[in-house]
Amino acid sequence: MRLLGLKTFRHGVHPPESKDETSGLSIRQFPFAPLLIVPLVQHMGAPSIPVVEEGQEVERGQRIGRPDGFMSVSMHAPASGLVRRVALAPSISGRMVPAVYLEPFPGSTQEIEDGTPCPLEATKDEIIAAIQDAGVVGLGGAAFPTHVKLKIPDGKFVDTLIINGVECEPFLTTDHRVMLEESRDIFTGIRYLLKVTGAERVIVAVEANKPDAAEHLREAFPSDLNGSVEVLQVKYPQGAEKMLFSALLGREVPSRGLPLDIHALCCNVATAAQIGQLLPRGRGIQERVITVTGPAVKRKGNYRIPIGTPLRFLLEHVGVADDVNRVFLGGPMMGAAAPSLEISITKGTSGVTAFTDTAAERTHSPVYPCIRCGYCVDACPIFLDPSMLGRLAASEQFSTMADEHHLMDCFECGSCSFVCPSHIPLVQRFRGAKAAVRKSKAGAA
Amino acid sequence: MANGGKTLEIRTSPHILSGYSVDTIMFNVVLALLPVAGFAVFAFGLAGLLTLSMAVASCVLTEHLICRAAGKPSTVGDWSVTITGLLYGLTLPPSLPLWMVAAGGVICVALGKALFGGLGYNTFNPALVGRAVLQAAFPVAMTSWIPGFAAGRFSSVPSSTLTLPFTSPEYDAITSATPLALWKFGREATATSDLAMGFISGSAGETSSVLILVGGVYLIARNMMSWRIPASIFATVFVFSGALHLVDPTRYASPIFMLFSGGLMLGATFMATDMVGSPMTSRGCYLYGALIGVVTIVIRTWGGLPEGVMYAILLGNAVTPHLDRWTRPTIYGAKGKEAPT
Ligand code: SF4
Ligand code: SF4
Q1: What's the rounded Cα separation, in Å, for the pair A6 and A11?
Q2: For residue A327, what are the contacts with CB-CB under 8 A and spacing of at least 6?
Q3: Which of A253, A360, A420 sits opposite B333 (nearest CB)?
Q4: Three-state DSSP class for residue A382
Q5: Dist. CA A147–CA A277, nearest whole Å
Q6: Using one digit for the tens of pLDDT, what is the confidence trace for A344-393?
Q7: Reported ipTM
Q8: Which of A30, A42, A369, B85 is the right S-S partner for A303, CB 3.0 to 4.6 Å?
Q9: Maximum CA pair distance of chain A?
């Protein structure tokens, strides 16, 4: 769909972008915390199996966890150091998860050695295995193991690869900086991705609020690659896969289907950059770029942060306001609130945003009854009726929500809650309802 | 670290809100209505002021007392009942006895709003519910109009205004007919400029189309009102009455006259657009507006009453849930858009 000259999708919302304070700041290396806590499950799927033990010395980049089956990835040491413990650690979900406690050697230069490279000439299966072994997951936030997505089943094919540099979440500028500073890696990554998916062309999608990134990528675009850089209208949630497919290709992923059903595949720019960086060097992910921002953060910026850095160390290093009271991983629209500062940075963390009391508008806003204003209906990019769903959720009619009102198609983008003038916690209710529906389905099966 | 032992608040996303709130929207509607109310006071003097004040006061007080009686915090702070009071007052003849105004105000809120469950559940526009009950109970008083801009309107009130409760109002000799009644019962057309500017007789708020439109444009610009509903009503009224007028200009009034006379402007702009009683889908809004437009013209042209906007809107309110259901959009991914193979 095209409006005012730029492509976009239908519906959506316009939250304040709040990106100016960090979008101009180059990526800086973050120091190593005295103790890194590396969770063995940082992705959707089975936890990695630890291959190191207490008291063992490891090299930076060395494998510390191996995949447990196909729906799992390898894990690598973010620093050279001593394994203190292999034990449970708190996670963003509130659950305890297995983790490796790693104490970096003090004073180490943290040099890193290359492993066995996986050249572009390797077979599809070799590249897929290398991606799994490099521990690559979707860095846009979902942390879905990338190699699983790339394994195209027989009989299916992909014609278009979309590289997602939209970054529609307010506050976050991670992908923006990666596009400006790591375009070489991005295009190398794209070559690997084109090879394994067999796609004929690639579209790099950038939102119109990052004209410098779009221009840079256009200039850097290798002439032998079939594809283009597309600038999209600024609107949330343009960065969601489904919205990219409708905006760029005019195709809709069938309800409950996969992008493969419409012969498309989408991959985040930072993920592509990691693939382009790691595979030719035979390494695994030990760090990632994260925007640390929000009204409560003193030294905001885009940092390359070792995986496993505890949130407490991170925030102490950048400095936070005294009245900080909310910290979330990711941006303000879909980010998850940190239950404590003891959790650590994982591969799926694209941002750390901290708010103060004063920025916590929600605390003071009363909830009114639904006034049927229809704002949510105009906002929902899936064309659901959040107002109706909200009413049904309030009376716990979960099966009606799922059977008649497409509850399970909601991808929790938060647009409806954002616009609701009655401040009804719509998404929160939908999450609860979805969990209840899944549970009752599991019970029935 | 700075927040030492302080615990973090755990809330689910989204962590930011658009900043629109029910009370800000409602307050802006009140603002948009103020020029209209001001003009009504200017046109009808003390009578207009007393009618509007009594309408608002009775509605607000009723809501406050009902909340109290139910042991709940008062909801008058969300401004919605102030809108009801203003709209209700603006639909009344300015000479209506004040006790009738007060009784109608109680009905608006008690019957039209509280009985349905309060804000958000009031299927019908409360202001119109109150007005409809009054119309049925006091048909004469509700159709007795005084002319606007009368000399001495700021120093005296019509004798009917202060009628004691439950006695019949006495009317001065100078009641006058509204433009719609003039047309309906005498085929007499009123100048369009007089209609648009409000130099006519009628209810307090159906007089100045220009100020009503200004308020509407303000709300539409702030995304606090659906533009589709008034646009659809106006288009329907224009096309339908225009077609009739082409057939027989002596029997059917001109479309411009139909647009600018009676309660159409106020109703289409401020009452039909009441969020609670109107559809949420775009296509639903168009259909809803078309229905209101058609019913208005049908009643005006062939019905027993000179004005039909009120009933048209109440009918629209009634079918709103069905319109929303019929026009529910196909969800993303259900159309089975396939890639070219
Ligand atoms: S959270 Fe779900 S219901 Fe709400 S706008 Fe997003 S997809 Fe629609
Ligand atoms: S945005 Fe909120 S108040 Fe408006 S219709 Fe949706 S749920 Fe109701």
Answers
A1: 15
A2: A296, A311, A315, A337, A338, A341, A352, A353, A354, A355, B8
A3: A253
A4: coil
A5: 16
A6: 999 999 999 999 876 545 545 788 999 999 999 999 999 999 999 999 99
A7: 0.89
A8: A30
A9: 62
